[in-house]
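Translate sequence into structure tokens.
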Amino acid sequence: MDLSRNSKTRLIVLCVVVVLLVWAIGYGFDRLLARDGITRSDILLTSNALTGIVAGFLFYSFTNYERLRRRIVDERLRTIAEMNHHIRNALQIITYATVTANDDESVEMIRTSVERIEWALREVLPRHATSPAASPSTEKRRESLRAG
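Result follows.
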């Protein structure tokens, strides 16, 4: 049985659990109210109201969780789009620089583009994940590019 985060089986199991939980709470309210000598119509009215409140709270909790999860996914997609923009622009310059004949100008264009890619990895990506730009090996590469 696949109970991974986005599986249909997990959704069905979750729905069954909610149904059983709401039923058990409703039944518990009925038993509790019947024991206190309340009339049948009052038991029905009170029990249904309390069960509705519990079901509403559960529905709100699940929908709020999904709303927050979607917001996180949207933020990650925006970050990916921003990274794509910065890295593609820098790679276009690198591609152009490999075609040009002037070595000093090409090296400067490549260095500038590499710095832009490193900036994007260091500044844009860490909002959602640890950036590879912060690793010691990347720092060594950066120093060797500046020296060369």
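Note: The chain has one domain: 8-147.
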